[in-house]
Amino acid sequence: MPDDEPQPAKRFFPPEDMVTASELREFLFCERAWFLNRHGYARLEDISKGQANAFLEEQIAAIEGKAKVVDAELEKFRLQQTQLNGTVTAEDKAALRTQFADLDRELNVLLSGEYGVKKAEIPAWRESHKPFHWCSDFYRIMYGGGFDVIIGNPPWKEYAAVKKEYSVRGFATEGCGNLHGIATERSLALATDSARVSLIVQLPLTSASRMMSVRSSLRDQSKFCTAIPFDDRPGKLFEGLQNCRSVIFTCLKQRVDNTKVFTSNYQRWATDARAMLFPTFQYATSIRRTLFPDLFAKCGAQVAATILEKLDRPQ
């Protein structure tokens, strides 16, 4: 995908030669990882946000030192498997697991403190919340700025349905009430400052009032964002699924003063026309309106966007 925003056109993805594999330092497909996304530190600096500890700076420095050691050992492990003689003993694997477990345990103690968990309750909290610390398990990637590309399908599940089992802390999107909104915020946190992020989420992202915090996160952290809404009647984007009205959004993460949002019309198609759905997309540049300025309008033609702008002007 080019750095410049997409122009309204009949193309969903840019030409394949726009980005080569060598240009992407790291790639993350977040599907099974979403449930690991909910809790844990994305970056080492996140630790200081929820702590009130006079010795925190020393603790973070010690954790970073341990993370570097574990990362170096992991790299040696990888080279042993791929470039050297390929011999990796059970003892080598056990030693590496022990180092990861020790680092994970230290981070869990800090994180559980933010949840008000007592020391004796940490094992039960760890089992229910299943924290995953990207800053340690992917230390080299996160130290280098994060992931260049993140794509996936986060869970479409109401937060209230799982809140008795686990809760989240420190997410601006918590009020949206759905895990896919929280996962969107975490994805942006894991991405580099020039990353591409694309997720399949539920239709309310475009216009539901409770999704305002998610739309704000996308606008505040993107140079441009495209949003394509899909119905599930008469044709379906995913055969066999019911009540699957969805949105595919794609954004280029970069903080700018005026984020450009490109929208398409609400996609409805006959089942037989499925093969022609993606090649015929059209975009319209979404404008900041006086009426409902936060929404991602379901508008796929620039002439329609212009009419909407005129209707919105003060008389």
Give the distance, in angstroms, between the N- and C-terminal Cα atoms.
Answer: 41 Å
Strand order of the largest sheet: 1-2-3-5-4-6-7
What is the residue-mean pLDDT, rounded to a whole number? 82
Regions with pLDDT < 50 over 5+ consecutive residues?
5-25, 30-37
Beta fraction of the residues? 5-15%
Total DSSP helices: 10
What's the Cα radius of gyration?
Answer: 22 Å
Helix content: 25-40%
Number of strands: 7
Bulk shape: elongated
SSE string: EHHHHHHHEHEHEEEEH
The biggest beta sheet reads:
7 strands, mixed
**Derived structural class:** alpha/beta
Tell me the layout of helices and strands:
Layout: E1 27-30, H1 34-37, H2 46-49, H3 56-82, H4 90-114, H5 122-129, H6 134-137, H7 139-143, E2 147-152, H8 179-190, E3 191-202, H9 212-220, E4 222-230, E5 246-253, E6 260-263, E7 284-286, H10 302-312
Parallel strand pairs: 1-2, 2-3, 4-6
Antiparallel strand pairs: 3-5, 4-5, 6-7
Helix pairs in contact: 3-4, 8-9
